[in-house]
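Re-run with default settings, no changes from the original entry. Doing this only to confirm the output is reproducible before filing.
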Amino acid sequence: MTFEYTDKQKELLKVLGSEATHCGARGGSRSGKTFAIVCAIIARALKAEKSRHAILRYRFNAVKTAIIHDTFPKAMEIRYPNIKYKIDKTTWFAEFEDNGAQIWFGGLDDKERTEKILGQEYATIFLNECSQIPWGSRSIAVTRLAQNVDARYSDGVRPLPLKMYYDYNPPSKAHWTYKLFEQKIDPDSNEQLGNPDNYKMIRLNPVDNMENLPEGYIDELQHMSSRNRKRFLDGDYAEATESALWTPESIDKSRTSEEYDLTRVVIAVDPSGADDDPDKNNDAIGIIITGMTQQGYAVVLADYTVKASPAVWGKIVGDQFDNYAANIVVGEVNYGGAMVEHVIQTARPGTPYKQVTASRGKHLRAEPIAALFETGKVKLSGRFPELEDEMCAMSTAGYTGARSPNRLDALVMSVTELFPSLTKKQKDKLKKPARRPYVRQAGTGWLAN
């Protein structure tokens, strides 16, 4: 099987082989950046006997799915088909038979595994999808970039340079990656880096990897929301919303691919008065479905938000009530609550329904829900581009989006219904989680200190 790096991957490999210690690639999804970096790590491991290298992500499940079972074996098959290796499935590292070099795989969300991995020194550390990794975790990980090993080159033997690799889909400009690699400032002190040339980052986008993408993939990205197009297609940073309740990186951390059992399902409807007239610039009717799991957290299951007449969206709610075996439908009384109940009962007679009264502003109602996301009490079961846009546009000062946040309003209602015993004292506590060593909490993984 013949293989050729794309032109952009070749540029990336030059950056990875430069004198800079901290380097890598940012850009859109499926651009080939992770594959190229993994290949570079394998090449370094094969040059240096008994060397150790680490590939880390925020969650171990993500490393297992994306790297151990996908990118790493593909790289070995395509680039190094004759190299023998074995994977230790107890502590999760790959070891090459010829020279005993190891590549360790880890997630920063697991205390025991993190302590085991960071108890060793490495010649290479790769932070994969580091937009999800907190700066504090990165700063601790970099202290383990300290293994002193010799490598064999065509012109002789010399020490293997220490390398810290990074890749990510660009988050907002408030993230540490923007400060470190674009502004060249220290994220802690906000002072200019003393050695800016030691930090190099290039951009790779899906269009740079067209020959390896399935037909129609770029078209799918082009039809995403503007925020997600900018991030996953164009590879650009999003503008930072001051005091945002959610950020792209915090939303990414809340996604789950775990299996779960539901104990209660709620459908929330935020009405707008829209009808079937396509010429009218109506707001959409927010329809969000969430569920409470036996594992103790809530999960966002679906977004059926639609611009349609009451007859149409009423049928959607009724159908999904049955599809999801829902327990109740909730709707806001301030904006047509009685109308919502009438529409739902017409579409599906006997549907359990509850009116919700909004006594505070949108951002005040959203704050405790954002806190539940931060503490891992609410997770997303996939990607919800339009809903996520509205979440990122909600700040402590109010909503900054162009239209009414119907999806977000429905989300807030639905999650609030799943946490009926959430008192004001509990809400305030959620906003300020305690900071203790090795405690799993909002945005820190197990490396908090």
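The mean pLDDT is 87. The chain is about 35% helix and 20% strand.
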